[in-house]
Amino acid sequence: MSRPYNFSAGPAMLPEAVLQRAQAEMLDWQGTGMCVAEMSHRGKEFMSIAEQAERDLRDLLGVPDGYRVLFLQGGASSQFAMVPMNLAAGAGKADYLNTGSWSKKAIAEAHRYCAVHVAASTQPEGFKRAPTQAELQLSDDAAYLHYTPNETIEGVEFPYVPESRAPLVADMSSTLLSRPVDVSRYGLIYAGAQKNIGPAGLTIVIVREDLLGACHEFTPTMFQYGVHADNGSMYNTPPTYAWYLAGLVFQWLKDLGGLEGMAEINRRKAQRLYAAIDASAFYANPVEPASRSWMNVPFTLADPSLDADFLAGAREAGLLTLKGHRSVGGMRASIYNAMPEAGVDALIAFMAEFERTRG
After folding, report:
1. 252 noted as active-site residue
2. Residue 258 burial by CB count (10 A; 0-12/13-18/19+): exposed, middle or buried?
3. Aminotransferase class V domain: from which residue to which, for each copy (predicted)?
4. 236 is in an annotated binding site
5. Is 122 annotated as a binding residue?
6. Which of 190, 196, 302, 303, by CA, is between 20 and 30 Å from 16?
7. 77 labeled binding residue
8. Which of 93, 104, 195, 269 does the annotation list as catalytic?
9. Contact criterion met (CB below 8 Å) for 83 and 190
10. What sign does the CA torsion over 264, 266, 268, 270 have?
């Protein structure tokens, strides 16, 4: 029986090859007689898994010397607090770009720990695009500039990397590992795992070493990047099984040809789906073309009263979790790394047939 195609925005599909390998190793990882979930995080078996995963992630992203890679808990939402707690203690001020629901949440949380300057906002326009570099009104004394390269709910993606004299901080929860990234342009990158990396429960942080160790004095120990860096992400018991599965995803990506190969696949998927939407009078995408996301494609039907029928028919066709976020409505197809091109083709074919019969 073939598996359905799951277009969930997260937790999202995992590569089938990764799930099959995890299944094969579930009861006995490499002759140890243990499931990875049962291993001590300080034992030699899990330490080998953790070290290999970090090496593979560094290889995939080309992480330069002078950066630490952390495997943490708490999701990206914890990073909304950890970033200002750790990076804004000196200046007490940070620049933020407001481009959608997740950047709004990051801004709201940062207000609790530092002065926030919103250097650009597309909210008055309904979050239909990313601001241009020329529109950014950056502060001279900001500790960092925070932005969300891809807004999963609105389907808005930055087509460029913002320039800033202050260290650049990026919430890459929905784009990390979808294409190559020049890590050297960033002071800190963070990403919840449940889009392109692995299961929920793991958060990746890549932080430049000179940004460690200057946190607010009230910062809890578990929220200090320096503590986690000094302890190899094992100050407490880490999310071991999620770390292991992420490591399998890293190996799967390397087998595919790395992030260059993954980028080509993702570009093709997005181009085909947007082309189908644009060629139709029945479907529409609200985002300006230059700011369209590769990962999250929202679309609406010309007649919203047909939404329920569309979703029911899609489910029957093996196309799952296409309902748009409650704040924007319509549909949303999240086409992360694990979504095969065949899944996108199946969605396009269903959309065409639904338009033919119901449009």
Report:
1. no
2. middle
3. 5-347
4. yes
5. no
6. 190
7. yes
8. 195
9. yes
10. negative
If asked whether residues 205 and 330 sit together in one domain, one would say no
Torsion angle of C-alpha atoms 327, 331, 337, 342, degrees rounded to 10 = 170
- Helix, strand or coil for residue 83? helix
Answer for the pair 72, 120: CB distance below 8 angstroms, yes or no.
no
- Domain-located, residue 2: no
Selecting among 29, 56, 95, 102, the annotated active-site residue is 102
Pairing of strands 283-284, 296-301: antiparallel
Q: Is 196 annotated as a binding residue?
A: no
> The domain containing residue 121 runs over which residues?
17-255
**Which pair of tokens denotes residue 81?**
């607090």
Q: Which of 255, 276, 310 is the last residue of a domain?
A: 255
| Residue 152 known to bind ligand | yes
Same domain, 268 and 162: no
96 and 110 belong to one structural domain: yes
The catalytic residue among 29, 171, 243, 269 is: 171
Residue 91, pLDDT score: 79
**Residue 171 falls in the annotated catalytic set:** yes
Residue 135 lies in a domain: yes
> Could you report the per-residue pLDDT of 273-314, keeping only the tens digit for each?
999 999 999 999 999 999 999 999 999 999 999 999 999 999
Residues (pLDDT < 50) of the chain are 1
Annotated ligand binding at 237? The verdict is yes
Do strands 145-147 and 168-171 pair parallel, antiparallel, or not at all (unpaired)? parallel
Question: Can you tell me the distance from the alpha carbon of 299 to that of 285, in angstroms, rounded to the nearest whole number?
Answer: 5
